[in-house]
Amino acid sequence: MSNSSGIRQGRRLPSFNQFRQRWEQLPRPEPESSILLRVLVQMLVVVGIIATDIAAETETPISLWAIPLSLIGATWSWYKRRDRNITVKFLLAIGMLLAMVFFFRRLLGFDDGVNQLNDTRLVLAELLIQLQVLHSFDMPRRKDLGYSMVIGLILLGVAATISQTLTFAPLLLVFLAIALPVLVLDYRSRLGLLASEVLGTTKQRSPRLAADLSWRRLGIFLLIIVTLGLGIFALMPRFPGYQLRTFPVTAPSQLKDQEFTQNDRGVINPGYVREGKEGQGRGRGKGRKPGEMDDTFYYGFDSKINQNLRGELKPKVVLRVRSQAPGFWRVVAFDRYTGQGWEISRDQQVMRLNRPEWSYRFFLSIVGIGARTKEVIQSYTVISELPNLIPALTYPKELYFPTRQVEVDPEGGLRAPGLMPEGLTYTVISEVPYRDRTELAKAPTNYSNNIRKHYLQIPPEIADKVRQQTQEILARSPKPITSAYETALYLAQYLKQHYTIPQDPFGLPLLGENEDLVEAFLFKHKGGYPDHFSTVLTMMLRSVGVPARLVGGFAPGQFNPFTGLYIVRNVDAYAMTEVYFPKYGWFTFDPIPGHNLIPQSIEENQTFGVLKQFWSWVASWLPTPMTSWLNAVVEGIALWLFRAIAWFIGLFYKGWLGWLTGLIVATVLGFLGWLGWNQLKMWRYRRWLAKLPPMESLYQQMLNTLGTQGFRKHPAQTPLEYAEVSRNHHSQDSAEAINEISHAYVSWRYGGESPNMQRMRQRLRELMKSSQPSAVSNQLLAKLKNGRKSAAQRRN
Q1: Whole-angstrom Cα Rg for the chain
Q2: What global pTM score does this model have?
């Protein structure tokens, strides 16, 4: 009773009554009554939510609850669009505050969700979807529908940034197909046309609206937009760099926050059988036992490998990599040759690192590199289970990984506490050195004792034979070889050209128990399988005093220009040789036939990857001579443009004189561009006039001439009205010419009369001559003199 009486007394207060009266008197916003516009906007939002779900590949799709609730909210908004809904607004505000609380819990890592701490894009997308669901319960006005349109567009943009496959492309086309009629309806609603056309007295769609929304017209627009978009996409350079220091990390439940146990040492490779259990256990395989390799997992990812195996892999995708530059995704390196394989001699001397609680970042200590380096950021997504060896470009300095601990072995390999499961995403930042052949050729040969101990080891049984064979090969060089770098280049190229790979993966006989792989390769079989070439090159370099080791990893894979990702398969795994150069570090050489001698690295990029692939497709249909000629022309133009841009940018690094020169060059280029643009417009104008009938062309020339003087014809004016008004702004002769041309145009256009074109052209020339600046100035001076004479006569 007391509460109700208090409310009644409050209502009697003047201030409350005034506020209530003013609130009731406020004009209610005009609701949006177009059902078609509301339905299409809701479809945009649904497509955005589904696109985010598909791109994120989450275990529990957000769309399962977000789409039904959003549809229910949109229906509620339609029926309650004319009500104030104060209670609902308060409830929605409370819901939005709760969504913000949930968002910050996920963002700061206080939640047990999957994508937190680093990949904030999905966390933000979830917040946006939650806000959209709440917002869908209160959308009375067109402006509220506009907010939903923007949310759908943002969700599609988020999906585009996180998508790793082309499944996103159909959703983009669906979004565009829906967005076109939405824009038409939204524009007509802003003009106030939908209220009368869609929900008027007849409740029938007008012919004009039906024409705007016709399937044929919208289809043509969609085709034009998609064509232009693909053209821009192909020509636009893409720089796959990261602007933020928060990188994608996705932690599957079986690996999240995992640590090493006390007995965890070595490498886990699911392709090996350990202690009678396939894919389980730890330790090292039998290095000298021949056999058949696993057809799923690459044999070379272990702490001890046997190269006396035969077989081939069944292709499957194992990684998707987003990187600022291609490269050899390095996995493991070996220092000790065992006669038929390799092992890591210091496998137990690993360094264990811990990360902080609030971040996924590990700081990795890298040895100082004297060569110039470039920071390269890579994000890896595991598609199929891999060993606990973490692929990365050479010289990683930061690792963003979801486990509590990682290990670094003496050869620079990274290890996780468990197998790398499907769905894992992690990021690596590497300091990759540039490969300067001139500098590396000058590298000293005063190797440290540690380098000599581990990277010059060679079995004494074959040392003399291999050294003699290597020296004989080097002696065949047409010019003396004086550096370790040139030695490695020459030997790698020699192996490519003079030794072969058997076509049959089981064609080469297995090595005997005491038979050495390098010796059999050089003197018996005159070749071997791909990884054997790298082993032989490593041993040949060691035999002449050049430190080297075997390194295993993945080739860059196939670059997908539409997603910007490198698709890496298990068949991309192989081994090659790393050579050590004091002060500069380790550099790889690939002696395998069919491979590039120097692997892809930071000197190459995929900025114009789409355009390059399109040109490759076009070139495949052209004759070889024409392709070679076009390649030379395109490369010449590209080289010239690159040098010109580099020269122009370099001007601004040469002091005030360079700045002055650069500004002058920019001004001249701008002036030339302005002239070229004007000439292009003039050419298009003349081409347009040539397509018109003679009288129409002459009349349009007259309008253009007068328009340049500031006397433009208003669209609402008829030709005769414009001619009548021109008498107040032009001389009598000009006004008569305008009037005569206008009457001739009207008679031709609406009366079907044939004009005297010779007479009309003469009148147009007279008008253009009288409209020249000198003629206009003379007319103004004459008018001024006449005015002065009239004023003098009136005074007299």
Answers
A1: 38
A2: 0.67
